Amino acid sequence: MPGLLSLGLSLALLAIALRSFQWDEFTTVLGRTVLAEVVQGLLVLTGSFLLRGLRWQVLLSADRSAPPLQVLATTMVGYLGNDFLPARSGDVIRALAIGQYAGISRLFALATILVERVVDAAVLVLLAVGLVLFAGLGLPPWAHSALPLVVLVVLLGLGGLLLAARLRLSLGALNQIGGRAGALLVVLRQQAYAFQAGIQAFNQPRRLLLFALLTGAIWTCDIFFALQVSEAVQLSLSVPQAVLLIAALGLASAVPSTPGYVGVYQFVAVTVLGPFGYSVSEAIAYIAAFQALSYAIVIWWGGLALGWLQWGSWLRRPMPAVEEVEPARPLR
Predict the structure, then answer these.
(1) Fewest CB within a 10 Å sphere: which of 107, 119, 172, 294?
(2) For 135, which DSSP code?
(3) DSSP assignment string, 252-291
């Protein structure tokens, strides 16, 4: 049922976005794509994913030091899953993969991913509010109506993270419960501690500073990528327009949708770029190029990462033990 609702919402948003679509204008925009700008955009997006892997490693280091290549590889496998599976399943895959390959608690890893998501949402809200208040950019009507709710949800999320990071779990009384129920509760307590430890990963000042710097670098790369895509299709977005578009795309990606955010991204592109004088066909061409390059990077690096993890796992398998064969007894 949730899958059908997501599909229905995506199709509805896509239909709204394509109401004034003109195929000839769409192909004209894509036909003038500049290859050099495409290559630069791919390099910038690769750098963004590299920084995301490094940022996750900063949080994971609160538990144990994981090999950087394994962290980067599992990061890309997670984003590969997000692009092809519903409900951000790639995040769960990422936590499971780092647990398998680096021996890190899966719940701890999942908690660090939750920290990333909440902080990223807060950054995007700050960017959107800053553009509205200080740059004078107007939001689309739907975004203007939804922004107060988004701000409230993000503030609640940040408050929840801070509360969970400060809260001390007092579950010592569970030790008094015996039998199977007691054993189960002990396991649950251990998992709760692991999850809380993941949320507390940014408590250490040095780790927090590095996490903040990498977060700023990540979103700077993403904004620059949006600008590179606009140069590639010769639409030339301004910096504030690119920032607003990235903020809107990032926040809209939380909406339940089909894999790859088909429909959601088209709706956002048309409603954000339309007030700046871009036609529906130009906005659709832009977001088509944006998603195509994003898919290309995720499929390339995610596929290589998946292959490397599987190959490395195969190499690390212990050789089967050689059975000892009793020497043949002499015939009597």
Answers:
(1) 172
(2) S
(3) HTTS--SGGGTTHHHHHHHHHHGGGT--HHHHHHHHHHHH
